[in-house]
Amino acid sequence: RGRKLGWIGIGRMGYAMAERLAKAGCDISVWNRTRSKAEPLAAHGAKIVDSLADLGGCDIVFTMVSTGKDVKEVLFGAQGVTAKGKAPKIVVDSTSISLEESAEIRERLGKLGATLLAAPVSGNDKVVKAGKLMFVVSGPQADYDAARPYLDLMGRGSSYVGEGELSRIAKICHNVM
Fold it and tell me: Residue 54 class from Cβ within 10 Å (0-12 exposed, 13-18 middle, 19+ buried)?
């Protein structure tokens, strides 16, 4: 579990998820647009960073923001994670975004030598706090294997469903049911 983690997005869900990783003793650096929302995580050992580009050297960066546009901005924007030419090895995105946005992000990360794990979640912040969050994950199997211990720390575990955007489709099906 010695990987260097980055976390982007400290809303109700993101805070609870990042808090579980910090409390578990993970090496985690956190960025949020409103820094003050992230600062309480420092009490659990998280490092609060001022710049998204500070996360470019992480092994795994988790994103839990509002929209697909936001994911693209925090990763590829002028002040984004990849702005200084460095990209994390793996980006795990739990934001609810479209298949098209997810595929575009996957392609753009690939050009930078990084991979995307699409990891939508089922639950809310109370579910996270209770340790019952579930992830459905798609992307390269080896990267899922690398990220799985961290996903497990945030909840009951995860289901790997294959390559590409299959997890986004599974999430849509789950919501319909």
Answer: middle
